[in-house]
Fold these 2 entries.
Entry 1:
Amino acid sequence: MSSVPFHRVSHSSRGIVNKDTLRVKVWRSATRGLAAFDVPRHESQTVLDVVTFIQRQLQPDLAYRFACRVGMCGSCAMNVNGKARWTCRTHVSKVAVNGELEIAPLSNLPVIKDLVTDMSAFFDKWSRAKGQFSGERTRHDDFARVSPESAPRKAADAGIECIGCGVCYSSCDVVTWRPDYLGPAALNRAWTLMNDERDTQARERLRAVAGDAGCHSCHTQATCTERCPKHLSPTAGIAGLKRMTMKAAREGDL
Ligand code: SF4
Ligand code: SF4
Ligand code: FES
């Protein structure tokens, strides 16, 4: 996408640019370039508010995605001035540079249209990493009792709040270099399940993440952890998977 020269188009909502106006460049698929818009500034304005203004007032065919507006669903993630973020929780005042914003779709994912990416590969990798819980109890059994104080429970808790937004995946250089790499979110999910005492697929999951495109491809520079809006640390979980797979390999248990 970045190799295509940007085609700039200008649309003004009020005809003039002043300090109460934000200059916003937005990726449009039709022209394979950035289109520029002038958007009125408001107090407490979020980047999602800006995109919504453009779609409602200036370009009705602009495609973008959101649902909850409060940082719960993860669907509004986009690149804002070069970094992946939740747009609904990103205030313009924190990210605008000289009154300007550049908004593009998430990196490392195919673009369906404008700011909307196809997340299929992202979620397929959760499946490849055996990111589904597999228990053995039935509805007729009592609930499992897992102590909140146990070390595995604490490790699982530390990664469990992932909402699958793709910010970490979009920020990961290794995914860019080798698209088959499972990536931080799928590996973080695998780590939480490896620490779930009720799960029965530990060996299969370790095999799934130990391969060439798995945890050992991570370079541990922690961009995923730095960018995760939930303040999770996929890097720490991946390091845990590296230790587990090495131990299992040494013991002939992989
Ligand atoms: S780990 Fe964080 S950044 Fe990555 S998908 Fe989950 S919530 Fe989003
Ligand atoms: S620490 Fe690993 S998973 Fe996270 S961004 Fe870097 S290479 Fe990707
Ligand atoms: S719209 Fe749901 S997290 Fe932003």
Entry 2:
Amino acid sequence: MTLEQTLTDEERLAELDLDTLKQLVGLVEHDDAADPFPVTGWDAVVWAVGNATQTAHFFASAFGMELVAYAGPETGLRDHASFVLTSGAVRFVVNGGVAPDSPVIAHHARHGDGITDIALEVPDVDRCLEHARAQGATVIEEAHDVTDEHGTVRIGAIATYGETRHTLVDRSRYDGPYLPGYVARTSTLQRRPGAPKRLFQALDHVVGNVELGRMDEWVDFYRRVMGFTNMAEFIGDDIATDYSALMSKVVANGNHRVKFPLNEPAVARKKSQIDEYLEFYGGPGAQHLALATNDILLTVDRMRAEGVEFLPTPDSYYEDAELRARIGEVRVPIEELQARGILVDRDEDGYLLQIFTRPTGDRPTVFFELIERHGSLGFGKGNFKALFEAIEREQDRRGNF
Ligand SMILES: [Fe+2]
């Protein structure tokens, strides 16, 4: 299969092409035939939240996403309401409980607003589930067809860390707005004058936080069960401040569209940010989503104007002579980055610009990263210390440090 043929429908709809995707998310060539668990790309990030109606509004207004589909009591879904929003190739599904005994409400009570499902698009659900089962994975949902007037979707699901799952979706025979049972729905929200069509184009990576001593187990899970390969690892001084520490390893699918950094806390003088997450999420779960943009300055300006809060970066970061020498020339003057608190990192392949939001829910758990890649396939290793110090200042304000 050529790379051109591997563009997903969502990417084609978002007018993304291969060169753009290579730049945005580091897409590489991959032979599915030799892969025991071929993954085409992301299908959806599914959320359980306390108020889906308002969270959907937040993603539409503050993140510039577009409401495209809905299911709920009006469509025959009795226990919860479900809003589907997209931005480029990114799809969020936001679920909130309606019936008091809805499992969505129970999930929300345990974890707060969080990610229940990192759904992946695969060409062959049955083959993936067979392989996963043979490798000892927990199959939560056997492969089955779901059909409506728009066609048929084949679907199945396996368990991953905590109460998170990977639903596997083959939507090659389906042309509805999301899944059978959902109806097309738009929002009356009006874009601000001059607003770009979208603020981000693709999902770059989703980070999982797991308990102390469990990271290697989950790295092994993704390698053994899903055929992912190691991309990077960060241990020891890479990823410690004077006070707290964590360890991180990154696994990716064959074409590198799907990248999962996995963090575990490390023992240090003070409480790791990963421990704070585990305590307030009530166990392992997805920590942050990195959204790929081709204009991070514009994205940050627009989101900030809509009230999204980003972690502040001290001026000393930009005045550091060593940093300035290391990052060299980037596409904008460093003052433009400083004015917005955007971080820069460079490696042998190129550079990247990145910035992190504060947690977007009430609990100090899930947050977002914006990332603009220029050749670098890394994760901002050079910024870890500055980032973690910024997170520690926030942890301290919350009394959790
Ligand atoms: Fe990240």
